[in-house]
Amino acid sequence: MTKNLNAVLSAVILTVLASVGAYAAEDTQEPEGRKLFSARTDPLTSRRPSDVPDDATLEAAGAKIGTVTIRVLDVFDTSRPDENIWAFRTANRLHPNTRDSTVRNSLLFEQGALYRGRLLQESERLLRDARYLFDASVTPIRYRDGIVDIEVVTRDVWTLNPGVSFGRKGGKNTSGFELEELNLLGLGAQINIQQVNAVDRDITSVRFVDRQLGNSWWGLEIEHSDFSDGGAQRLVLDHPFYSLDTRWAGGISLYDTDRTDSRYDLGERIGEYGVDERFRSAYLGYSSGLQGDWVTRWTFGITSDAHDFASVSASPFSNVIPPDRKLVYPWVGIDWVENDFRAVRNRDQIERTEDFQYGWSFGGRIGYSMSGIGADRDAFIFNSKLSKGFEFSKKRSLLIAASLGGRYEEGSFTDTLLSTSARYYHRQSDRRLFFASLNVDSGEKLDIDRELMLGGDTGLRGFPLRYKGGQGRWLFTMEQRAFTDWYPFRLVHVGAAAFVDVGDTWGRDPYASKTQGILANVGIGLRLGNSRSALGNVLHIDLAFPINGDKSIKNMQLIIDTKRSF
Q1: Apex CA 137: angle with CA 135 and CA 143, to 5°?
Q2: Model pTM?
C-alpha cells in the first residue's frame, strides 16, 4: 500500500518550524532568507587529494587500508547560512544520528585489508540503499608508506513519522495513521505501527525490520496484521548475497494470511472469495564471488505454497471460486550478474544520487512439485529474470528487463506469465529529461485468482483502478520531466511532468464485460522530491484526462501517490 502524503507530511514538524524559523532566526537576513526557497543540492562527495594515486596504481602497489574515518552528517547542514536557523538546529538536536558502528557494519572493507577500489564504490551503493541515509561518499584521502586512509561521509534524513497518510488514485481514496521509525536508536532497524483504510480492506499492523541483525548480515522481518476481513503474519530470516563477493546465502520465509479477495471490472467489484494462504520456504546459496566482471550464484531450496479458497457468506455477488492448490517442491537456481553499475542524478529521483545496473543480470530457478511429499499435483515450477542497460551516449540510455514464471503440468503450461519492460531516458539538459516506457505482460492459462488488470493503479492514470482485465496487457508511457531549482524551505525539491499513457488488454476475461479497445489519457503533474525524510521518495500530484472509455468515467482523475521514482 502507499504512504502517499507521508513524503511531505512526515516532515510536518520540520515544515512548521521552518516556516517560523526562516523569519524568526536572528542570523538570517533577507538575501539568505530567499535561499530557503531556491537552491540545488550538490552530491555528497569527499575530495580525493591530488597526491593520492588512482585505484589501479594503488592496487598494483599492493596498498593496504589504514584508518577508516566515519563522518555522519546531520539532517540539516548548519554550516550553511541558509540552513543555520533555529528550526533546523532544533531538528538536528531532536534527531538521533546514525551510529558510526551502523555505517561501519555496511562497509565491505576493513583496516589492514588490501585496497580494492570497487569495494569502496559498492559500499557507497549499499549505504545509499539504506532508507535512513540521503547520500554516501567513500573516498581515499591519504596515502603514505603503502597505507591508504579512507573517509566515509554520510548524511542522515528524518526517520520518525508520527503522522497521517492520504492518497488517491483510480478514483479511490486511501487514508491512515501510523507511528514509524526507520532508524531506531541510530541502529538502522525499522519499527512500524499503522492503521490504514485501503481500497480492499482496513489494516492494523505492527512490523519490525532489521537488515543487519546484531551487526551481522542476517536480516530479520516480523509482521503481524489484523484485517477487517482476516489477518496476516510474516517471518523472514535471511542472509542474502549482499555484495558481489558474498560467498554464501541462506534463509527461511514464513507467511500466513486469510482475507477476502475481489474481482473487478470497469473499476467496480463483480465478485469475491475467501483466501487462506500458507507459504513456507527455506534455501541455501553458494558463490565463488566476483570472477573478472562476473558473479555466479547457485541456490538450493524447498518451498510449500498452499491456497485454499471459499465462498463469502452473504456475498451480494454471483461468485466463481478458484480451485484449491498446494505446491510442495524442491528447487535449484542459478544467477549470473555482471559488474557494471552507474551513478546518476535527476533521472527517477530529484537531486538524489541514483544507482543503476547496466551489466547483464540473469537468474533462473526450476523445481518439481510432487504429490508424494504433500502437494496436490505433480508439476514443474519455474521462473527466470533478465535485465540489461545500454548507454548510447552520455545523454541517452535504455534499460530492459524480462521475467518468465509459471507451471508445467499435465502436458501444458499453466499460470504462466511473461513480463517485459523497457525504459528510455533522454537527457535534454541538466533540468529537462524525456522518458518513455513500455510494459507488456502476457499470460497463459492464468489461475482464476490471478487477474491481469489495467487501470489507474497500474499506470493508466486517467482511468479507475482495475478498470480492464484480460490474459495480457500492455502500457506505453511518455513523460516530459522538468527538474526545477525550487527548494521550498530546503525541505522538498520540486519537479513537474507532462505525460501520455496508452494501453490495452487482450484475451477475454471470462468474468468481465466486453473489451473497450485501446485506452489513452494525457495529463500534467507536480513532483515533490523528499530530500529530508526517509518516509517517501517522490510525491506525485497528477491531473489525468481520459481520451476515451465508457460514459461512466470522469473527465478528470486526481492522483495523489508516493512512488520510488519520478
Answers
A1: 170
A2: 0.88
